[in-house]
Amino acid sequence: MDSQLEQLRAASLAEIAAAGDEGAVETVRVKYLGRSGSISGLSEAMKTVSKEDKPRLGKLLNETRNAVTAALDERKTALAAAADALAFADVDVTLPGTAPQLGSLHPITQLQDRAIQIFRRMGFALADGPDIEDEWHCFDALNTPADHPARNEQDTFYLPDGRLLRTHTSTVQIRTMEKAAPPVRIIAPGAAYRRDEIDATHLAQFTQMEGLYVDEGVSVADLKGTLEFFFRELFGSDAKFRFRPHFFPFTEPSFEVDIKAGAFGGGERWLEIAGCGMVDPAVFEQVNGRRRDTAYDPEKYTGFAFGFGLDRLAMIMSGVPDIRAFTDNDQRFLAQF
Fold it and tell me: Beta-carbon neighbour count of residue 72 at 10 Å?
């Protein structure tokens, strides 16, 4: 058996060294170390060896098996390295590399974060609510008449169960007052949905930010001071604003806020950027009815509310003439931000 082991060791190592690919290496492994392989056969034959020779021959058999196994692993490693070298043979390592493309926050998200920072400095907390709402939170609680055009299916997305996609984030104001007694000072950014005809200045889904401040002695002066501070921080200290009387069902008095700026492909002119007003006492009464208390006593508390579209502000600030550019996912456009 000594001579057999020596011959097997020499033959197997020679065949391993001559193997030209991984398939050939595997063939040699099966031939010598497989279940029916030559070395495995000698292991079975150890049963017939005398007790005196078994330790010596067992040691020799293990050495042969280990040598063949090590040679197989070494040959596989060498073949893999040769294949890698061949694959990169034509690669010019002196060429400059390709720089990775780094992403960034969407321009609307950037503006929203900036707006939140400004309002936080004025003591406003961040509030959130569901996108799918009921008519009470979206319309009834906000003193919106049953025949108001906004409640029509041509303007609002209704679901089969009677619920709807919120048309504004004013619903968050109502939900906040349901849960918390005054004073309340919150902002509510988020998506709003309306059945608008999609064009250069309208989308069916847009990003809105609304705010609410309720406390004793809150006045129109507080409202104007808050919005003027916010928009001057956003547009610059020399920005020109004006407040125009308007009508909203949930505020009285109500105002539109305009800024003098150039956007939407035209020259500098007055552009509407926000709606606001003092909270109508009827809204407080609706909230009190839902809360079953008088926490928002209109004789004691006053408040103001405001809202604006972040998409429209982004268009004005960046000189973007078409709102659809923010949803087209064109990286040439987004890379500018």
Answer: 20
pTM of the model: 0.69
> Could you tell me the residue ranges of all domains in the chain?
2-87, 107-334
For residue 214, the SS3 value is: strand
DSSP for residue 198: P
Backbone angles phi, psi at 216, to 5 degrees: -75, 135
- Report domain 107-334's class: alpha beta
Cβ atoms of 5 and 64 closer than 8 Å: yes
Digit-coded pLDDT (tens) for 102-149: 888 999 999 999 999 999 999 999 999 999 999 999 999 999 988 888
Q: pLDDT tens, 276-323?
A: 999 999 999 999 999 999 999 999 999 999 999 999 999 888 888 889
User: Do residues 256 and 277 touch, judged by C-beta distance below 8 A?
Assistant: no
Three-state SS string over 28-90 comes to: HHHHHHCCCCHHHHHHHHHHHCCCCCHHHHHHHHHHHHHHHHHHHHHHHHHHHHHHHHHHCCC
CA distance 258 to 244: 8
